Amino acid sequence: MKPSVIYLMILRDRSSLFCIAIVSILLSFGSGALAKSISGKANVIDGDTIEIRGQRIRLHGIDAPESDQLCKDKIGNSYRCGNAATRRLSKAIGWNSATCEVRDKDRYGRLVAVCKVKEQDLNRQLVMEGLALAYRRYSRDYVEAEKEARKRNVGMWQGEFVKPWDWRKGQRLATNKPAKSGNCLIKGNISGSGKIYHIPGSKWYDKTKINKGKGERWFCSEAEARAAGWRAPN
User: Fold this and answer.
1) 161 and 62, same structural domain?
2) Residues 111 and 207 in one domain
3) Does residue 58 have an active-site annotation?
4) What range does the domain containing 156 cover?
5) Better-scored residue on pLDDT, 3 or 231
6) Quick one: 26 and 41 in the same domain?
7) DSSP labels for the chain?
8) Known catalytic residue: 222?
């Protein structure tokens, strides 16, 4: 083979390798290649989403209640469990820098990551405190943490709640109706003196009205009222 032909083949091969390298670089940018991690001051969006330097980040493997989601505590009172998760996440981060190890990107363009502050796994902490659930659909990393929270009756596990993914589909807690039939005639009133229960025939029984919106309720026995935190009048 002539030297000129060999030289041309070498040039062609080098050109091909160069083109392949350029195409690979362009594809990596075009496909939104994931960074391995992202660090910085974190702004809390909700109970399982933060933002660092303008990038939304969904906490991997967990699902917290929605911002407007209602749960019930151990005595049946409604509270905004989504707000509780958001507040706890904000407190856990404080003014510290967060470091997030990226696992994926979701359909909304958010990074999916395990985020830490001072080596504390925020994802795990929220589940351990019963403020979020293990998102088994995508990961089983925090299933054991959820079992521990349930065992200790902390956070949402102390009362009733709808799983966040079911809430987003429209499922809601059943509305409790005041139990006035049978033996459930004890009135649980809340006033400036605290939580006081009134039994039928007592001084203030007939004048006491139950306002469920304030967290007041009916009880079937004095023992039930005391167990829920109410006391007899002085």
Assistant:
1) yes
2) no
3) yes
4) 37-167
5) 231
6) no
7) --HHHHHHHHHHHHHHHHHHHHHHHHHHHHTTPPPSEEEEEEEEEETTEEEETTEEEEETTEEPPPTT-EEE-TTS-EEEHHHHHHHHHHHHHTTSEEEEEEEEE-TTS-EEEEEEETTEEHHHHHHHTTSSEE-TTT--TTHHHHHHHHHHT-GGGGSB---HHHHTTT--PPPPPP--STT--EEEEEETTEEEEE-TTSTTTTT----GGGT-EEESSHHHHHHTT-B---
8) no
